[in-house]
Amino acid sequence: MAFGKSHKDPFGTSVGHLIEKATFAGVQTEDWGQFMHICDMIITSKDGPKEAVRALKKRISKNCNHKEIQLTLSLIDMCMQNCGPSFQVLIVKRDFTKDHLVKLLSPRYNLPLDIQNKILSFIMTWSRGFPGGVDVSEVKEIYLELLKKGVQFPSSETEIGTEKQVALSPSVTKPPPFVPSTSVHSSAAACKAPTILLVAEQIGKLHSEVDMVKMNVKVMSAILMENTPGSENQEDMQLLEKLYKTGRDMQERIMDLLAVVENEDVTVELIQVNEDLNQALLGYERFMVRWARDSLQVSSSSKIPFFQITICYL
User: In what residue span(s) does the GAT domain sit (predicted)?
Assistant: First the structure.
């Protein structure tokens, strides 16, 4: 036990004290050796996972120090990869993911965009499941809640360390600050649909529909690559508009399936397809904003300014 601290203090245990030191703002950068030592202590101690999670909660709870949050997220990432199901199952619970991690996305913490994206990336990755039978139903619900709120998760192709705006869809204008709320959870819990385990025939049919979504995404992406706002092909634009409307309908169906399907492999594929589809839909929306802006500029420039009008008197 750390000197001067009781076991009631999350930092008062051996592993808690190490977590406190490793995530202190005075630390210049991640000490990966110390992180690995913490992982070893979590694995080898009976109460290691619980004590570690309590310490992690304390470190990030109401913490406005961006450096400490960044270090803590790096430690969580390493622990999730190395500490096994006994630790993972505690992290993916709602009381940690929603009540601590998601709360950090509130504007009051003013987190840098790369740290926001890291948190969102965690939630998306964890919702896909882990080996060893870890129950990820709660983090999957959180992922769906955020999607329904319009939170744009970072693309798998986006490097977490880059400064990228966490955009909201379908709005393509700058979104209002994201404020976590318990209302979504309460309403979802009240009318939660029963889960289903798809059989082989249903999975086969679903794969056919998923393949159609993938094809539509490829076509949308190709059209967006080949056209420039202001010089676009009209036939391409008509097709793109139809694909966009179809994509929105498909996305609603994917969301409904994610809420009830128990098959882990199906869930993983649906999350990936939804991510790709969302990127394509967002690409279309951005294209149309640029098109509207350029059209407005052309329209304005075509008018003769008042000061250029010359009146001749005979």
Answer: 201-289
Torsion sign over Cα 15, 16, 18, 22: positive
One-letter identity of residue 261: V
The answer to whether the peptide bond before residue 177 is cis (omega within 30 degrees of 0) is no
Please give the Cα distance from 199 to 205 (Å, whole number): 10
CA atoms within 13 A on the CB side of 129: 18
87, 52 in Cβ contact below 8 A?
A: yes
Closest of 106, 22, 95 to residue 64, by C-alpha: 106
**Total number of residues shown for the chain:** 314
Instruction: Name the region of 302 (left: φ>0; alpha: ψ -120 to 50; beta: rest).
Output: alpha
**Amino acid identity, position 58:** K
Residue 248 is classified by DSSP as: H
What's the CATH class of domain 193-314?
mainly alpha
Q: Tell me the pLDDT tens digit for each residue of 166-181.
A: 333 333 333 333 333 3
* pTM exceeds cut of 0.85: no
User: Is 66:115 a contact under the CB 8 Å cutoff?
Assistant: yes
List, for residues 183-242, the tens digit of each pLDDT value.
334 344 434 557 788 888 888 888 888 999 999 999 999 999 998 888 888 899 999 999
CB 92 within 8 Å of CB 126: yes
